[in-house]
Amino acid sequence: MKPSRNLKNIFSLFSVDLITKFLGFLATTYLARILGTSGFGAISIGLAVLVYVQILSTSGLTLIGTKKVAEDAENSGYLAGDIVSVRLLLTVVVVLVTYLLSYFFITSEEIRLIVLVYIIYAFPSALLLDWFFTGKQRMEITSAGRIISSLFYLVFVFILVKTPEDIINTAVAWVIGGIANTIFIWYIFKRYGYKIKLRINRYKKSFRLLKESSPLGLASLLSQVAIMFPAIYLGIVSDTSDVGIYSAAFRLISLFLIFDRVFAAVFFPKIVNTISQAPGRLEEIFNRILKIISLLALVVSIPMIVAGEIMITIIFGEPFKDSVMIFQVLTGFFVFTLINSVLSYTLIAKNREGIYIFALTVSVITFISAVIILYTEFLTLGIAVALIIYEIVQTMVMVIKFRETIYINYLTSIIAPAFVSIIIIFVLINLDIHLAIKIFIALFIGTPLVAFAGKLKIEDIKYIKRLMI
């Protein structure tokens, strides 16, 4: 039996994500050991600022561009020209504003310089045409670009960063990786005969695109506020060492979020097809997918927590041991991120982005309040707890809105298996046995118990098999 196209896409996605994350983690591990907690925290602040700069300078334009290319809605040359020109203009404005603000809000000359070098990356990013090939469903091209970017970054990190005094060169290596990716994508763009057409008289059309993309840009900004805010907040109220401790834990959590990408590739098309072809089955399909993703997230989270200490120590080194408990708490963020993907992607498929933006707004306000309150009492660990609260509030708001039109069996899909998972984690953490035995118990005893609590049925397993094969 030949593997299905869906299985090939999953394998391709997993392969690329694993390669890029592996290359990224080689760089991260090297930098953590060379720069220490303080230096690692400083570059984390730079990256956090860069993410905000990119979101503001992109404003959802790449998502709109991908959609229009996929629909073949208009001349691709003019579309590419419109998006690139608006992104470049936005980038100039946002970078200049960031440059000015850095003198008011960043007291450390070293951190300011790190930030200012990192945000140069926004310019090659504005010229990047990966969104175009995503719309053409040429994922092998965008994947190759991501690998090239990661490889160049890793090589130049090894070449340029030898001591803690070379910390600025970390940002330089990041910019070089971005330039390499942009050049590669442009080369392929030209090789396939595509052209960018720039016309001054199309400025009205260009800004109509910006207006159309603004809601998506707002959603992207809201979703990233909670992700990047902790590094910036800690940089203000504490020191770069605390930023480094927190960032190490979050970087490791991000590695496991590869499962979130796979969800988008495997289940999102199924939700879209169900809505368009068999809307009467949406409730059944939605609840089945929610159950599968929830159980997967919980099953993976148990060995993550059990092996947290050894993973942090091996990857980042002894100076980052304070990251262990933060990482273990952040596994809750990992679980609810996957659950929220089911809810948010379904809302987007139903063209109900407004509910998603409302849920994000409520959760971001709650998150910032929780950070301020919990940090006072629990310091950096309180921020990790606040991030879980952010995801839980988002889940609650979307579930409440969903239940107006779709019945959600959240007791079976989320609450019962989560309760069983917490009991298993508590028992394993307090058992005085070898780590390998704990992981064995988590996988081969914990998994069936969580599946039983979530009422996983043979039909659910067959459903997964049909999607994969």
Overall description:
The protein is built from 20 helices and no strands. It has 469 residues and is mainly α. The protein has two domains: 1-219, no CATH class; 257-469, no CATH class. Helix 2 runs antiparallel to helix 3 and helix 13 (282-306) packs parallel to helix 18. It is globular.
**Average pLDDT, to the nearest integer?**
83
* Main sheet: strands, sense, barrel: none
How many E strands?
Answer: 0
Weakly predicted, low-confidence segments: none
Attribute tags:
globular, 469 residues, mainly alpha, 20 helices, 2 domains
In short:
With 469 residues, the chain is mainly alpha-helical. The chain has 20 helices and no strands. The protein is 84% helix and 0% strand.
How would you summarize the topology of this molecule?
Elements: H1 5-58, H2 61-71, H3 76-105, H4 109-118, H5 122-127, H6 130-135, H7 139-160, H8 168-191, H9 203-237, H10 240-256, H11 258-266, H12 268-277, H13 282-306, H14 308-316, H15 323-349, H16 353-378, H17 380-402, H18 410-430, H19 435-453, H20 458-468
Helix pairs in contact: 1-3, 1-4, 1-7, 1-9, 1-10, 1-11, 2-3, 2-9, 3-9, 4-8, 7-8, 9-10, 9-16, 9-17, 10-15, 11-15, 12-15, 13-15, 13-18, 13-19, 14-15, 15-17, 16-17, 18-19
